[in-house]
Amino acid sequence: MRGLEHAWRQGRVLYVEALSPAGRAFGEAHGLRLTPSFILFDAEGRPVRVWTGALRAPTPAELDEALR
Question: Bridge-partner residues for 52, per DSSP?
Fold first, then answer.
């Protein structure tokens, strides 16, 4: 999933280490059970879409479409 932060300009990409204390807390708060997982949030911080156990990161076009 690395590299998306350079390809997608409509938002910001943050990575959370799933096995760190902060990553575990984040995963529990958002119901994540598998890695890798990707959550897209809208401008107000609400989850819009979740990709769980994805073999690849969503494309910038997929992210833009999910936000429409």
Answer: 37
CA distances from 19 to 23, 27, 28, 45, 64 (A): 6, 10, 12, 23, 29
pTM of the full predicted structure? 0.79
Q: Are 45 and 54 a contacting pair, CB within 8 Å? A: no
The CA dihedral of 1, 53, 65, 6, to the nearest 10 degrees, is: -10
Q: Does the pLDDT value for residue 12 go beyond 70? A: yes
What's the CA gap between 65 and 34, in Å, rounded?
Answer: 24
- Listed in sequence order, the residues at least 6 apart from 27 whose beta carbon sits closer than 8 Å to its beta carbon are 16, 18, 33, 37
